[in-house]
Request: fold
Amino acid sequence: MTTHLPEPLVIDAEFVDDDEPNPIPDEERGTDRRPGRVATAAAFLARGTVRVVVRNIAATRTGLSVMVAERGAWLNGGRLSEAHLRTHLLNRRYAQWLAAQRTAAASLVEQAKALQTQADTTAAQAMALQTQAATAVDRIAKAASSGTDPLKAGRQAGADRQAAAKLLEAAAEDRAAAGKLLAAARELEQQLYLGHFEPNELELASHRRRVANGRRWKTAALGLVVGFAEIQIGPVLMEITAGGVLMAAWAKGRFAGWRSADPEIEALKYVPETGKSTVTAGQSADAPAAGPDPAQPGATHNAASPGPANAPADEQHAPADADEPDEETVLINAALTAAGLLPTARRGKPPLGVQVIDAPDYSIGNGFVTTVDLPVGGGKLVRHALAKADVIAGELSVPVTQLAIREVPAAEGGHGRRMQVWVADEDPYLAVGHDQSPLVLAATWDFWGGVPFGKTILAERRSLLTQFAGGFTSMFFSGMMRFGKSFAMRVAVAAALLDPGLRLYLANGKQGADWKSAKKVAHRFTEGTGEEDLARFEAMLDELVEDMEQRYRDFGDLDVSLVPEGRLTPKLARHHGMPILLAVIDELQLYLLAMTPKRRARALEKLKNLLRGGPAAGVFLICGSQRPDGEEVPTGFRDLFGVRVSVRCPDKRSSRMCLGDLASDNGADSSVLTEDHVGITVVAVGHRWEILSTDFLTSAEFDEICERARAMREREGTLTGDAVGDVRVTEPTGIRAVRACVDALHELETDRATIARLAAQIGGQDEEPDEDNPNASPGEFAGITPDALRQLLKDAGCGNTVSLGAVEGQRNASGYKLSTFEGVLKVAKAARDSH
Reply:
């Protein structure tokens, strides 16, 4: 099938009409159909306005981006260089130190003002008493006219004058103390800042984070304040805030000069010093000077400060290793960290370390000595370091005897965090050796002033204190055998023997040659633990207790000026026949183990009575024992001694028993001493302790001192007792029975008892046998019957039993009263003294 298409249509241009249909004549068109100038200008302005708006919007958007970036950099501290952070951190440390100094100074000033006020009040009271005393004549005349004793008014006037004088003296002391406080406050205010040391990279990074966190918190706080204000005020403030932000953003986007400039580097607010100014010529006082010279004494760090704060980083002339601490300081920091005295460095945080006060010094010839401060804020003091001395020594790879840590006292500019550390190359206690005791050549010695005892590892002499606060304090020596315990005791006793105003009572639990020489001068001397020896030991304690009680009665009969505060004084001891009563008991544990529990308790009670009441009366005890466990020598008894001396102990537990809890908690440990440390002692007074090399005193030298002491007492007329053959007459059995009954009544806490009860108590019928010490002696009255006891008491002068009333479950029991026994003992003492 064929498809036929139409022929194409051809249009000739001639036949096309170019004219518009219905053309309008030109005169009829009108001029308003053309665009005018106003329309053209409007269109131009519209297009320009659109372009300006678009550009400003773009500028605002750019400015917002800039503000966001600047805000982020500000919050993160990104624009702060190391120079910024360094000066900011150093100034922050200085501000904290300055605030602490001002607070301390203000506290001292307040204390001084309080003392001044107290002094003024005291002075006013004194003036009132003086005025009252000035009218003594009127009071005496009135007393005479009224018929009363005029002397009483006169004595009252004298008492007023004395009281006024004491008040004025107290006021003067308060004013003097206030002056010292004010001087200390001024010294604090004028004290130079010596805490400058350069921060390391970790410290700078940590400070950058600290600054950033502070800024974030401030921003968050400001946002909360603005948000709260907008909620309270309404949308007006929000519109104002938004408008202000947009205007600032537009300005930052439109003008390139409206960018945040880099912060200026602030200058240090102090000049780093080490005791003298380090500002050089041509350097302003406000600019930081070069840091302390490591070679100068007292340099606080091994680093030098950078140059002026406004100098570029490449012009700062600090040495390359300026921030590197000494190797010794690094080792000490590591050891303290391992011991838990410094916090472990955490990721992203700088490690805390000690501040070097005195650089390591090797001039001592045996290791090095350095002085450092533990960091502020860690809560660790030198006493904590002393308690961890064994751990620190182990971390330093030296034995604990080659590490010496000492708290620098306040007199040397120290405080609780400042310590002197000596790390020795060889054992300093063996290297220092033993000195011959100065007592060997001394003609006499004042026992009141202490006992020359030994020296430290720095060859500094040390003495044992004999008195605290005006009263004597006793000494307790302990430790293992064969390490010099008795030798150390003999040094203390030798000093006492060279004081002629001292009376010696000596008991030695083991019979040997250690104390034989002292028999020449001892007022009482006993050795051994047989039954007769135990009786003599108990009699010695009874005599000491009686002398102590009699001395207190004598104090009451003396003029108050001779017995200030009721205590024995050197003048009273030397010129009024009241010598120091020194009781030396070596191997105390042997005496106590030889007694039954009740008898042991009675002896310990007498010893405690002497320790508690004896110091003011001039009674001084020196006791020695081996390992003093709680059963042999109770803790409560050991804690009554003011001075504790220990030679080597086998373990820490034994050392704690010897030295006490206070010193042991502060690091005292005699178990660190080795087999070579013979004659090396740990001396503890309260929580303070020290290791000393004890002076050497041979047996021959001690014997020669005893000879001189005897001759001295013979010249002075103070040789008494066993030394001159005036042996204490052994008390009759009846008198000893009376003493036993007195002790029994004290144990029963009553003042009367039947004869049967007394016999059971002193005879030990109610006492269970001591399984640990089956051979312990119960005493001479073991198993005594009531009839036998009644006869002994009659022979002693107690008479027949008397009615006691209702006691021990009986309506009208008969027996003896405490007052009867005390009267018999008083008569026996008078008879013994007359003999």
The chain has a mean pLDDT of 78. The chain has 23 helices and 19 strands.
